[in-house]
Design goal:
The chain has 60 residues and is mainly α. It has one domain (8-60). It has helices at 16-27, 31-39. The chain is flat, with a radius of gyration of 17 Å.
């Protein structure tokens, strides 16, 4: 069986409290959600938090 990897990127607001709430929300996933994910053929799901910095063009 060929394995496929799909990526969904979500750009969160860079706010410590909001990101903390996002992480907390994803720690206890409802069983119905897990079932729908596995029923669709997904066997491994990973969520990454990427901190990006802003690059400014100062016109120099």
């Amino acid at each position: 069986m060929k394995t496929h990897r799909h990526c969904f990127a979500l750009d969160l607001i860079n706010d410590v409290e909001l990101i903390s709430a996002y992480k907390k929300h994803h720690k206890n996933v409802w069983p119905e959600i897990v079932k729908s994910i596995t029923d669709s053929g997904i066997v491994n799901l990973e969520i990454y938090l990427v901190i990006k910095s802003t690059v400014y063009d100062y016109g120099g």
